[in-house]
Amino acid sequence: MDQLAPTSANSSPLTPLGFLERTAAVYGDRRSVVYNRTVYTWSDTHRRCLRLASALSSLGISRGDVVSVLSPNVPAMYEMHFGVPMSGAVLNTVNLRLDARTISILLRHSESKLVFVDVASVPLLDEAFRLFPATVPCPRVVVIEDAYEELPPAPSSALTYEKLIEMGDPEFRWVGPQSEWDPMVLNYTSGTTSSPKGVVHCHRGLFLVVLSSLIDWSVPLNPTYLWTLPMFHANGWSFPWGVAAAGGTNICLRRFDAAAVYAAIETHRVTHLCGAPVVLNMIANATDSARRPLPGPVHILTAGAPPPAAVLHRTEAIGFTVSHGYGLTETAGLVVSCAWKGGPWDRLPASERARLKARQGVRTLPMAAVDVIDDATGQSVNRDGETMGEVVLRGGCLMLGYLKDPETTAKAMRADGWFYTGDVGVMHADGYLEIKDRSKDVIISGGENLSSVEVESILYGHPAVNEAAVVARPDDFWGETPCAFVSLKEGAAVASPPPTEAELIAWCRERMPRYMVPKTVVFTADLPKTSTGKIQKFVLREMAKKMGAASSARPSRM
Ligand SMILES: Nc1ncnc2c1ncn2[C@@H]1O[C@H](COP(=O)(O)OP(=O)(O)OP(=O)(O)O)[C@@H](O)[C@H]1O
């Protein structure tokens, strides 16, 4: 068999961009994108994306150029996931809730050639441009207008998105990758633990993550998908391409709250949506006036932060079917998922099912391996569900690397063949991974590593708790002790009397070893979050630090 080698017939570069043409051929008349009263079919979307790619080429955008976009989940944002890379360019979705300084840094770092900007974010972009040094040219700007918003229109001289689409040729021969390893997107990480890093993914990695996400979540043909997850966050875990592959309908929302989510589900008969655990919490704790009955089965995929078992339990009790996965910007989407075994697991009590589902799970199909390794020895930790180590990954969905940062890339993708996630986890006897913390969030109390996620999950079980985050507070005796920041559910906050610090501490004491029990509880209306819905623990850690050292007496430890 030695003479059998790849030929041009069997080695066309893998890319998710080809999904669009196929879906337009099969489901041309079906709805592709819905936004308020705007409804496109897959034929429309196909033509509009080709026009976009063609128009970008006519503006001089070519292979490898970075094109950025600052936009909420509107149809233009969806189209750019195809149209921009179909011009050969690299799509760079920028978090539109960042401040002007960070946006200015990211645009310069990426050497972006053109920026699409939502009309509401024009002043923010202008401010970012003012921070460019005089010697560095600003990228060209295209404004995305919105007929449904009462916002000042784009200046008459501005090139608008719709004008650009009109300029383009719907018969354009799109620019395919020369190699499946060609870069296709550039995404900056959320900046939860450090400055955002520029993650570059190639066509091949995205192709793999899209197909495996559909299989893993058992997405059927023609789903109706509600865009609650921002597309600017890791390309909405790659579902812009996934919904196209499945011939689904994208329901776009510029902004949402619990009432808007329930209303959209009812109006459009939504079948699927993704959301960080904060979105689940928002849906589960919605007031009666916001809630509507579900018109049919609704599947929610959650990831991005550890979902507390209590939140999974509450969301499923309302009637949603929740799946849980784990991934990073560096993996383009979900690469570990809590594969549900059905049968015996279905027969367990609901709270036990939620506890199992809160585990992150096993590798998805394109991944070669997932492990938890001991930092000191580099060996796998015992599969006992207790011994903590760093979560490492290997497989086809991993990024090419960090843009212009070989040192950080080498630190993350090491010579031993693993990608180091910076997450701390345990491996259970059944081979399921469970994340216990981010390494920077681990609390070390009296020399013992303590998982803030475990303490949080107990706090979430308290009926009055809306959200909880636990961080380290300096302690004169123990070095660090857990400090909990807690927001209460609306009803509980006004009910008399709301729980006190002593009551929450007692609640924890009954349910966890003493060394894990928070020594301090701070009640707050809201917890600080990144725009991707992650709790900013570094902000809370600073607050805990400013509170000064807790001077513990030497309590007896369990
Ligand atoms: N299911 C999950 N359970 C627990 N944590 C999760 C889950 N999914 C994702 N995460 C967390 O999210 C992280 C990936 O987030 P993302 O790539 O958006 O940026 P970030 O890591 O928050 O930002 P930065 O790297 O800039 O600090 C993971 O490393 C992990 O800590």
From TrEMBL:
Q: What class of enzyme is it?
A: ligase
EC numbers on record = 6.2.1.12
Q: Which Pfam families match?
A: AMP-binding, AMP-binding_C
**What is the catalytic activity of this protein?**
(E)-4-coumarate + ATP + CoA = (E)-4-coumaroyl-CoA + AMP + diphosphate
Keyword Ligase in annotation: yes
Q: Where is the AMP-dependent synthetase/ligase domain?
A: 20-403
Transmembrane stretches, start-end:
none
Could you tell me which InterPro entries the record lists for this protein? AMP-bd_C, AMP-binding_CS, AMP-dep_synth/lig_dom
GO biological process assignments: phenylpropanoid metabolic process
Q: Note the superkingdom of the native organism.
A: Eukaryota
Please report the stretch or stretches of sequence annotated as the AMP-binding enzyme C-terminal domain: 454-534
Its family remark reads: Belongs to the ATP-dependent AMP-binding enzyme family.
Task: Write down what this protein is called.
Answer: 4-coumarate--CoA ligase
